[in-house]
Amino acid sequence: MMKRILGTAFAVSATCVSANAADMIMDVKAPREPVYRCDITGFIELPGTDVCFKIGGYAGLEVYAFEDQWPPSVGAAYGIIPDGHVLENTMGMYAFTHVNFDVRTATEYGTVRAFIEGELTDNDTRTGGSFGLRHAFIQFGNWTLGKTWSTFLHLDSSPIYSDVVTVTGDNYMRRNQIRYTQTFGNGWSMAVSVEDQNYAYPYSLRATGLLGPVTAFCGVPNGCAVVNNRNEVPDVVANLRVDGDWGNAQLSGALHNNKFRDVFFGAAPAPVPGNQTDSEIGWALLGGAMVKTPATGEYDYFTLKGIYTNGATQYNEDNFLYTANTVWGACNRLVPAAGDCIVDTVTTWSVLASHTHFWTDRVYTTIGAGYQNVTAPISAFNPFVATLASDFEMDTYEIFGNISWRPVAQTTFMLDVHYGHVDFNGAGTAGGVFNPFVVNPLADDSQGAFLVALDIRRSF
């Protein structure tokens, strides 16, 4: 069992600061310490067995207020849209909880571990609410088998903030996977995994203009739709990490195979004539670091994370196009029999930084900012169509700050303030993607909004 801490005080507070900070506690590296007589802090022995277990988690209440342009249901700055188009309450509250079970047994192969965590959220119903399985995995030696954080992620470079929002440039993917972790000397480690490639069901945008689809290509009046094709190849993900007294850093990479095809509208999901199927390899890179800054305070630290994706948008998913990976259109308008194909890929890049300062052992603050660019070349030059939508490009940035007070151990009150801004760069969109200038011709090309949240949490 390996434990990772961000600093003495931060390790105590991270469990109760925010959903994102709490997530950092669980390290899914292969456990190394054998369990003897359940002498691990917080674990107890199940009578009559050789099993040690621990129950943990937290309960919390989130109170939020958004400006009218920022839909609370989105919770990320890319969701900011022109005034007058948010038809949901901009102030509310909800209760939430995470409950986890950690079970370990010492064997001749080392510690064998099973970990399960669920999440429940409720706002205004008497009973019920939603339930989600966050983690369910087994660790056996160097192997991790099941659902947990993607090997791509570097959680230590994720800032502290409230549960209701995901900051621009951050990511919290949990995937079914098979992972192998190998540790080396001097704090170095490496992990390689195969992960479920259908996470969030990546899709392809329809192109417009000269490369756009023509109904006649499909041979039916209603035309075709582009959908995921059968894909037998999982994503391949790897990271290289180093830990030291100064903090830690990680470099991650991922490969994803995009496969799409045309299908008839209202018909069986079979390829249309002309062999209109295509595939393209997408990829993603991440660099992240958490560096302690004793010059500003004994427990202070700085975080930095950068992500770039090309045809693998799910690795930078909190953006306007979500998990759109490719652009789909007619390969040759003059030769319909050539069929449709992938004519380009969607690219994204982002950077996110923050600094956390401990004023006392009970009061600390985090300030930070994130920026993200999304580009989708969904149109080709067409001099015959004056109203042709331009390529979609969107810039999003977010500035945030929060203050946390921990009156007693494992209990935190946090006030969190964010300003988000989106810029559509004068570009419309096509293929069913929201076009702010069609919905509201008087909309601004750029739009900003504030949100304020109070996050109250008790961990156990």
TrEMBL record:
What residue stretch is flagged as signal peptide?
1-21
Q: Does the keyword Transcription apply?
A: no
Q: Which GO terms describe its biological process?
A: monoatomic ion transport
User: Where is the protein localized?
Assistant: Cell outer membrane
Q: What does the entry's free-text domain comment contain?
A: Consists of 16-stranded beta-barrel sheets, with large surface-exposed loops, that form a transmembrane pore at the center of each barrel. The pore is partially ocluded by a peptide loop that folds into the pore lumen.
Keywords, sorted A to Z: Cell outer membrane, Ion transport, Membrane, Porin, Signal, Transmembrane, Transmembrane beta strand, Transport
The UniProt GO MF terms for this protein read: porin activity
Give yes or no: UniProt keyword Hydrolase: no
GO terms under cellular component: cell outer membrane; pore complex
Which InterPro entries does the protein's record reference?
Answer: Porin_alphabac
Q: What is this protein called?
A: Porin
Recorded hits in Pfam families, A to Z, give:
Porin_2
Q: Indicate the principal place this protein occupies in or around the cell.
A: membrane
What does this chain do? Answer: Forms passive diffusion pores that allow small molecular weight hydrophilic materials across the outer membrane.
User: What membrane topology does the UniProt entry give?
Assistant: Multi-pass membrane protein
Q: Which family does it belong to?
A: Belongs to the alphaproteobacteria porin family.
Superkingdom of origin: Bacteria
